[in-house]
Amino acid sequence: MSLMTLPCKPQGHPAAFLRALLGGVALFGAMTAGAAHADEPIPQTEQSDIATLPAWSPHMILVVDAAYQHNKDGRAYVVDADKGRLLGMVQAAYNANVALTPDANRFYVGETTWSRGNRGDRNDLLVEYDSHTLKITSDEKLPSRALVTPKRNNLALNADASRAYVYQMSPGSAVEVVDTKKHEVSSTVDVPGCALIYPWGNDGFSSLCADGTLANVSLGADGKPSMTHTAAFFEPDHDGIFEQSPSVTKDGKAWFISYTGKVYPTTLGANATIDKPWSLQEGAGVKAASDSTKPFEISWRPGGWQMSALHKSDHQLYVLMHKGTFWTHKDGGTEVWVYDTESHKRIRRIALPTPSPMVGVTQDSNPLLFTTDEDTGDFYVLDAKTGKQLHKMKALGGALIFTAAPGEG
């Protein structure tokens, strides 16, 4: 029936006419709608899937935005540095720490939350993620963890990742030793007057102490700790040590760098040894910088948060350097100076696109260098051998710490 064939006058009861009229309108609408959509494709049923990351390569890195400047949740990003592309992300709480296993199959996030957002019951956590799916595989509550500005050595793994070490200060300095297979805290080791974690091998770690010594903790087969101390090797009141100095867990080698630029080659262990220091400035052919007894003398000095990085197999130390006085040790570097750790000589200097508080390097034979702009959060990828800028990722974060995947180093 079309509207044109409807009778002009009502036949019978008016309600019958109204029903007929409305029925005709509905039928006309359905016919015209069907004609309008007859040629449109039928939508396919949506298919869901779960993406996985590609196999980790030496140029895949974890970049952590600890978010300490704006008191918001942090992030842990998986970045393809070859393409300057973000591959994945997991959420991490404010001022989180991250550690990647040597085989790059897992990574751990140490974080702290409160039951009511910014208050309530506190939860200190160690979360284990699968590096390929970014799924949580363990979510363990800790007795405590130190909640401070970004420090790479708050959370560390032993050589085979069977143990995680979590530094805490509740109420005194201590390290939680976590069995990563059983997912439980196996012991709490007190390190009075000392801080942070520099692991060596599978069964021990060292901590920097306020009296200028190293505390060295050995864990026996039963998990019980024993501790030794080195003699004092630096003067905290006159020339402190950068706590983010690089170390190698597998062989216990470390290079502790002081505020003035002294480098203390160290072999960590139950009986740790510290070699005679050498000078970053003298290795570059300039005068050594002054300590706190001459605080206003301007020199080239190391500075930043993650202010140094080590390429293990090439024996090359990358250090952020800037011109300043003694108390500018937190200032970002305008250049990266690269040293041969065996000859103690500077072999390259790299001018940075913007001053950076952080530096990192991959461990392969064609290494990439990473820096960041603390003000904008921009993330830079450079060729570590030439200093050429390869990529710039905008606004990745203001407090970035880098962890490179294992490579040939």
How does this structure look, described?
With 409 residues, the protein is mainly beta. Helices cover 7% and strands 42% of the residues. Strands 20, 21, 22, 23 and 24 form a five-stranded antiparallel β-sheet that branches. The chain has a four-stranded antiparallel β-sheet with strand order 3-2-1-29, with no helix packed on it. A four-stranded antiparallel β-sheet has the order 4-5-6-7, with no helix packed on it. The N and C termini lie far apart (83 Å). The model is unreliable at 1-12 and 14-32 (pLDDT under 50).
Strand pairing plus helix content: what structural class? mainly beta
**Overall pLDDT metric:** 89
Poorly predicted regions: 1-12, 14-32
| Helix coverage percent | under 10%
Largest sheet: 5 strands, antiparallel
Annotation field: number of helices: 2
How much strand content do the residues show?
35-45%
Tertiary shape? globular
Q: Rg, please? A: 30 Å
For the secondary structure, the number of strands is: 29
Distance between the termini: 83 Å
